[in-house]
Write a structure and sequence with these properties.
This protein is mainly β. The protein has one helix and 15 strands, in the order βββββββββαββββββ. The protein has one helix at 106-115; strands at 3-9, 16-27, 30-38, 44-53, 58-65, 68-74, 78-83, 90-95, 99-101, 124-132, 137-153, 160-169, 175-181, 184-188, 191-196. The protein is globular, with a radius of gyration of 16 Å.
Length: 205
């Protein structure tokens, strides 16, 4: 069960956004990721609880940020309920999308489990619902993903496979690279892995 800490920053101007303390693990029915986020000053900012099934589909999502809450799952696309800080108003949403995304590195790992890309294969287009900070507002985005390389690196704990993905945001044309080993993001725009207590989990083929 990998445990560690990511630092989060604005991918454009590198303003620090805080940290995400996480643990995650694959299981017989899929993969689960749980984290707590903090502000740059160290104050509690929110939490992430994401579970995907063996095919990578989000079977449960719970986000908290700035007293807002989102609960979601894959249902007729993706479906969610967003609750305001007072708890008196809740709005439901549904989009014919493949999965959720957001600032947490958890979403990057979960999407690679859903896509199961092969090196050199054509880009795969996906529609995602992003929950944007600070109030978890839903936004539908279209991306394309391609697995550029999959390289094995020797480590003290044995060989480690690092996958490099090219991600394109279709409405802006922006492209960036995401590096993932097992169920841990090594580097991505706005994300740096700062600490890792145990090696990444290896997903079954």
């Amino acid at each position: 069960m990998p445990r560690g800490r990511y630092s989060l920053h604005d991918p454009h101007d590198h303003t620090p956004l805080g940290e995400e303390h996480f643990h995650c693990a694959p299981g017989p029915s899929g993969w689960r990721y749980v984290s707590q986020t903090t502000t740059p000053a160290g104050d509690h900012a929110g939490s992430v609880d994401l579970a995907v099934d063996a095919l990578g589909r989000p079977i449960r999502l719970e986000l908290h940020a700035a007293s807002w809450q989102v609960r979601g799952a894959a249902l007729d696309g993706v479906t969610w309920v967003r609750t305001d800080p007072t708890g008196t108003h809740a709005t439901e949403g549904n989009v014919r999308a493949h999965a959720f995304t957001g600032t947490s590195p958890a979403f990057l790992v979960a999407l690679t489990r859903l896509l199961r890309l092969a090196p050199g294969a054509p880009e795969t287009r996906v529609r995602l619902v992003a929950f944007t900070d600070p109030v978890l507002a839903p936004l539908t985005v279209d991306q394309s993903w391609a697995l550029l390389t999959s390289e094995v690196h020797p480590t003290d704990h044995g060989p480690l496979t690092v996958d490099a993905y090219q991600v394109s945001t279709l409405d802006t044309g922006e492209r960036h690279t995401v590096h993932i080993a097992g169920d841990v993001v090594l580097a991505a725009p706005g994300v740096e892995l700062e600490d890792l207590d145990t090696p990444p989990s290896v997903f079954p083929a």
